[in-house]
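User: nitric oxide dioxygenase, Actinoplanes aureus:
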Amino acid sequence: MADLTNVLNESWSLVEERSDRVVEHFYARLFLAYPRLRDLFPVEMAAQRDRLLAAIVRAVRQLGDPARLDEYLRGLGRDHRKYDVRPEHYAQVKVCLLDAIRVHAGERWNDVYEQAWNDVYDLMAAKMIAGAEGGDEPPYWNAEVLSHERRGRDVAVFTCRPRQPFTFRAGQYVSLECAHRPREWRTYSIANSPRPDGTLEFHVRATGTGWVSSALVRRLRAGDLLHLAAPMGSMILDTASRRDVVLVAGGTGLAPAKALLGELVKYNRTRWVHLFRGERQGDGFYDREHLDRIAEKYPWLSIVRAVSDEPGYPGERGAIHDVLSRHGPWRDHDFYVAGSAPMVRATLSRLAEMRIPPTRVRYDAFTDC
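Assistant: Predicted structure for nitric oxide dioxygenase:
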C-alpha cells in the first residue's frame, strides 16, 4: 500500500498546481458525456469543486490506514444517497476523472500512474457502493427547525428534530440542505451528544462567500424544514482510552467540542479535559457563560480562550496553536481539533512538532459555504 501511495502522490504532483483546471476539465467532460448527471449537482459548482479535490486528497492520505479509510469511504457512500447516486455512475465518473488527470499531467504520465489511479478509484468506488447499500436508512432525514437564535453579529445557533429516528455519535457531522438554497448541501457538526428528545443543535457562522451559511444564519426560522444526510466523521471519543483530553476549537469548531463535552459529563470521573478556544476578537466567544457553568460544575474541565486579532485583549493572545504550545506538557493526552481548514492544519503541524502520535489526534476541518 505504501508503494501505491507513493505512486499516487508522485503522479498528483504533476497536476497539483493546475488542480483547478483538472476539476474544470472533469466536470465539463462529465456533463458533456452524461448530461443527465448534471441534475445531481447544485447550480453553483464552486464549493462542489473544492469538495471533490478534498475527497481525493483525503482518500490518498488515508491509504496507509485501511480502517479509517474504510470508515470514511463507506460514510461517504451513504452520504451520496442524498444525490440519488447509483452504482453505474461511479464508472462514468472514473472515465472522466482519469481523463482529466491524464490530460493535465502531460507527457510525464505513464502506465504505472494509470494503473495506480485505476486501482485506487476502484477501491474507493467499491467501498462507497458498499456503504450506500448497507443498512436500511433513508437517503436523508426531514427535520423541523424548533428554535433559532443569533449569538452575535454573524453566528446563529439553531435546534431541529428529525421526523424519523436519527442515530449518531457525539463529534460527528452531517450534510444539511435548506429550502433557501436548494440542492446545495453543506457539512456542519452536531453540537450536542444524543439527547432523549432527539433534538440536534447546530452552530453556523455567516461569511461573505458562504451562501448556505448566510441563509442559515439570516433567513432560517422556527418551523422551516431541513434535510439531513447520514452522520459522518470519526472525531468521536476513544472510550477505551484513559488519557486526559485536549479539545482545540476555532470559531464554530466549538460545536463538536461541545458535543464531546456533553458526552463526557455523562460518565467522566477520572480524565482531565482542557478546552482551548480561539477567536479573532474577544466578542466572538459566543456561549461563554454556558461553558463557564459547565466548568464550575465539573472540576475536571478547564477552559483557555485566546484571540488572534485584538492587541488590547486582556487574556491570552495569539493563534490557538501557539497558545496551546505554551501550556502542557501534552505527551500523554488525546487531542480533538475542529475549526477552519487553516486553523486545523496549523494545529496538526504544531502537534507533529510536539511529537504527539497521529493515532491520538482526531480532527475535522470546516469551510463556510
